[in-house]
Amino acid sequence: MTTGSVEDSGAGMGIAGPIDERKITTSEARRGQAREAILEAAWVVLARDGYEKITTRRIAKVAGVNIATLHYYFGTKEQLLSEATRYALKDAENRLQQAMIGTPTAVAALERVFEAVWQLVQERPGILRFDLVVRGFRDEAARREAIGIYDSYRTLTEDLITRHLQEGGTLAPGITVPGLAHYLICAVDGVLLQHVLTSDAAAARSALTMLMEHALSLLNAR
Predict the structure, then answer these.
(1) 3 domain residue, yes or no
(2) CA 65, CA 35: separation in Å to the nearest integer?
(3) Cα(176)–Cα(219) distance, rounded to whole angstroms?
């Protein structure tokens, strides 16, 4: 009896040949790109139309995909919008962190962060956070998510102030790291909310500049 090779036996049984990992990687990359395009489109449409008026068809159109593709990645509109809000706000947090990279001092980092905040104000992702906060009044999961987002911003801000102290800087009398971080987050939120309501870019820019100058004075850097 003749014994075939392992390869011959596999071929005779109809077993597929070696897996092309490059094809798998390319396929995964395409799926990731489609999913990201849908998420980006969702937060753009959400910021433009609001949570109550948004539809999956509008999102699919902006993303450049058909409705079936959208529902392949996200089973329901609520699932998509929750993920889109998380995606947009995480992106905003990452951009603030990126703004601090390579800065020589904490003061320089703070100035860069305020510039990044101004860019974000113009792109209006703040509306997503406020929408999440409003939903949090009637949805416990949304409330927890909103609190988590603010906790992340608070940690980022506290780390920046702590860096200032580690570099030999000081704080104004009576000012604490947690207190200053909380104040800055609340103040920036106020600017964002006013801009969402009025779209007055000049007023938002002026308010952020004044806030930055006040923050620097509380860091005894002015």
Answers:
(1) no
(2) 10
(3) 10
Q: 155-196 pLDDT, tens per residue? A: 999 999 999 999 999 999 999 999 999 999 999 999 988 988
Residue 137 pLDDT exceeds 80? yes
DSSP state of 138: T
CB 211 within 8 A of CB 218: no
Asked if residues 46 and 81 have their Cβ atoms less than 8 Å apart, the reply is yes
Boundaries of domain holding 198: 86-222
Longest dimension (CA), the chain: 94
Are the CB atoms for 74 and 48 separated by under 8 Å?
A: no
What are 71's two structure tokens?
A: 């529902």
